[in-house]
Structure formats: C-alpha cells, structure tokens
Design goal:
Strand order of the largest sheet: 2-1-3-6-4-5
Structural class: alpha/beta
Radius of gyration: 27 Å
Shape: elongated
Distance between the termini: 13 Å
C-alpha cells in the first residue's frame, strides 16, 4: 500500500496516510481511461447542428435554362450545392453522440486515473478544508500553501463555504466524492483530497 503525506491548510506536513491498493494502486488501463474521457465529452455534445440539403432549400423547382444550346453548363436546379443559396452537400443533421460504457469499465477507468495521480506524485491529501466564511482570497491562500495552480478539489461533504470560495478561481474545480469522474481527474494537474474524501472513495470503490 502506498503511503502519502497529509498536509494541513498551511501547507505543513502533519502525518501520512496509507492508501488502499484496490483503489489507488491498480494497474493503469490507458484504453479504459481514454474511453471514459471520450464518453463524457461525447455525452456533453448537444448534437443540435443542422444545415439544409438541396431538397430542403426553398425554390429551385424550375430548370434555370434549357439543356443545350446556351453555352452554359447544364443545370437542373438553382438550389444545387454549387449555386449561391443552394443546399449543403452532406449537411449535418441533429444526432445523439452519446454512447454507453459498462459500469465496471467506468469504475476501472476511475481507479486507473486515481492510481495515475498517485504514481506521478500529483495527489495531495489534506487533513481538512474548513473556511469560516465564503472568501475567495482565503481559498487562494490555501492553494498557494499547497503549491497548486490548476487542480481538482474533492470533498466528502457539500461544504458551501469551500465550494463558493473556489468558484471564481480559474483552473480550479470542486466536486464531491459521489460526482467525481475520470475526465475531471485527468484534466487537473493536481488532485486534492481531504482525509474524509479518501476514506469515502475507498469505501465506495474498493
């Protein structure tokens, strides 16, 4: 089992914590991580793009000139794609980009992402994150103490003081244990977990 340091909000090491290898020490499956990221990005797509084909553009029902004898190239409709105001060739239509990933594959991808952060020393465990009030400056100071610029903060409980304080900081996101996902973990340079969040993750995913 991997041992990582535990820091306080001042950035000082206050102890160590032993991580469960069933969650933080698995064999990293890059393919599943890739699939989980692609799935989440695909599921976010609205798929509402639309352009009209030549059959949907109004007008153009009459042949613009006779087939032969004019000196022009033959044309059947003024709504053909080569005409100004004509339809679009292979026009995009509304579609659903989402696809399904099995639950076991999602869990394996999440464990792989967590393990990757541990192996690359990009996981920071904090004994607790508590703020007396909603104040962005206070949370920025905590991040400076932990030497984090771009990261994901995972909380065990819904703490509005922390979440709202971090809301206006660019490149810093907050989430709860029950809403973490592979894409957000891989996107963050540093993953910040509270001790309670570590315990909850191990309880859910071990």
């Amino acid at each position: 089992m991997a041992n990582v340091s535990v820091f306080n909000m001042e950035g000082k090491e206050v102890g160590t914590i032993e991580l469960n290898d069933a969650v933080f020490g698995v064999k990293v499956n890059e393919h599943l991580v890739h699939m989980a990221v692609v799935q989440q990005l695909a599921n976010k797509r609205q798929g509402t793009q639309k352009a009209k084909t030549r059959s949907e553009v109004s007008g153009g029902g009459r042949k613009p000139w006779r087939q032969k004898g004019t000196g022009h190239a033959r044309q059947g409709s003024t709504r053909s794609p080569q005409w100004k105001g004509g339809g679009v060739v292979f026009a995009p239509v509304p579609r659903d980009y989402s696809f399904k990933l099995n639950r076991k594959e999602k869990r394996a991808a999440l464990k792989s992402a967590l393990t990757d952060k541990v192996q690359n020393n990009n996981l920071i465990v904090v004994d607790e994150l508590k703020l007396d009030e909603i104040k962005t400056k206070s949370f920025v100071k905590v991040l400076d103490n932990l030497k984090v610029e771009k990261g994901l903060v995972v909380l065990a409980e819904n703490d509005q003081n922390v979440i709202c304080s971090a809301r206006n900081i660019s490149d810093v996101d907050t989430t709860l244990v029950n809403t973490i996902n592979t894409y957000d973990i891989m996107k963050a340079n540093k993953l910040i977990l509270t001790k309670d969040a570590v315990a909850k993750i191990e309880e859910v995913y071990a």
